[in-house]
């Protein structure tokens, strides 16, 4: 695929595109297939590079992954085997998903070798919650030059775990480990994102016993065997919200096929407050700019059911066009406003406060690592040459280039294909004027 795109901006995006299964569910459901004794079938799998990376990791461990038709994966774990170091090492730095192989591999092989992780550079992104949880199940963690080696000589036993923060990945780690551990696991302060609920649905189809109590507590009763599943992945909420912000920023009208209201309620409220309009249909949601001025908002990112950290970057581009001062508080990651530098180069007025901003209207107590971005609009954007820094920031550059007057070049597109399926074809379907180069 080309590495760069030259965009002639200033044209509202209009038309219909489809979103398929969520990156942040499909990749985890693929890992879950390792736990079954029989093949699993996953439907609505997006063609994105994070799926390819997990496919390669599964392949390294002997899981046969085939695709009988587009969007469908059959994952056969009948011949799970130890991986060669070179195969694992080749995946180092490419994704964070491999960390979730730990529990399933410990159950299947008694040990797990995990490459050094990658993923977007949006802060430290430590794995201490994951490792502490695995130790609580009885695993032994060694960090070596090869990566992370985890063993469980006495098998894994259910544990009482309380996460310091409702981490999505650590909750998934516990679920994927506890389902086949001996006894009952109690997980307090769990993440409850819709993708996690969908992963629980996958595991229940496989034979797991999982229930929830109020206040983010999940119980998992370990079972001896699990079988394969057939499952259609939940739609990609982050992609849907990204196209919605693209419609708003460019003054356009986009029907996002496959988007569902229930899982986007928090986003829809903010979208409406900014001045965007939407219509909920059976088969998707129409997002459009109804005319008139956009309004500034105060938003804070949070764990579900709050406003997702992955929604703020595309929204910020739309906020550069709102009349007045908006504030976005980032409370999930400690460094997720780096992408705004390029927007400033394109004419936006954005000031980032690295230590956050106090505000009387705040809903959650201030987190230690939070920052705030103050966006003053409206500011016309002009074309520039920008380089994609991370997945969501990168998509926001596409929106900024589409909104801007004049020509922009966006390079390092490979990162965007980690999480946005066929985004070039979708831009074409929406009437964007561009050319791929490189
Ligand atoms: N954290 C720790 N220690 C840990 C794990 C997390 O301190 O061991 C901290 C993180 O540094 C962060 C916070 O906890 O400050 C939340 O991280 P979380 O574990 O919830 O995030 P994640 O599982 O690594 C997933 C998504 C992200 C999404 C977040 C939040 C995947 C593959 N990634 O990351 O998606 O932003 O949850 O919802 O599911 C993206 O799609 O672009 C993306 C980055």
Automatic annotation (TrEMBL):
Tell whether Oxidoreductase is among the UniProt keywords: no
Location(s), subcellular: Cytoplasm
Q: Does the keyword Transferase apply?
A: yes
Specify the protein name. UDP-N-acetylglucosamine 1-carboxyvinyltransferase
What does the sequence similarity comment in the record state about its family? Belongs to the EPSP synthase family. MurA subfamily.
Q: Which GO terms describe its molecular function?
A: UDP-N-acetylglucosamine 1-carboxyvinyltransferase activity
Instruction: Give the keywords, sorted.
Output: Cell cycle, Cell division, Cell shape, Cell wall biogenesis/degradation, Cytoplasm, Peptidoglycan synthesis, Pyruvate, Transferase
Q: Which residues form the Enolpyruvate transferase domain?
A: 9-427
Which Pfam families does the record match to this protein?
A: EPSP_synthase
| Gene transcribed to yield this protein | murA
**Cited PANTHER family:** UDP-N-ACETYLGLUCOSAMINE 1-CARBOXYVINYLTRANSFERASE
Report which reactions are catalysed by this protein. phosphoenolpyruvate + UDP-N-acetyl-alpha-D-glucosamine = UDP-N-acetyl-3-O-(1-carboxyvinyl)-alpha-D-glucosamine + phosphate
Q: Which NCBIfam families match?
A: murA (TIGR01072), PRK09369.1 (NF006873)
Note the coiled coil stretches, chain numbering. Answer: none
Entry binding sites for UDP-N-acetyl-alpha-D-glucosamine: 96, 310, 332
Q: Which organism is it from?
A: Lysinimonas soli
The Enzyme Commission number assigned here is: 2.5.1.7
Kindly list the positions at which 2-(S-cysteinyl)pyruvic acid O-phosphothioketal occurs in this protein.
120
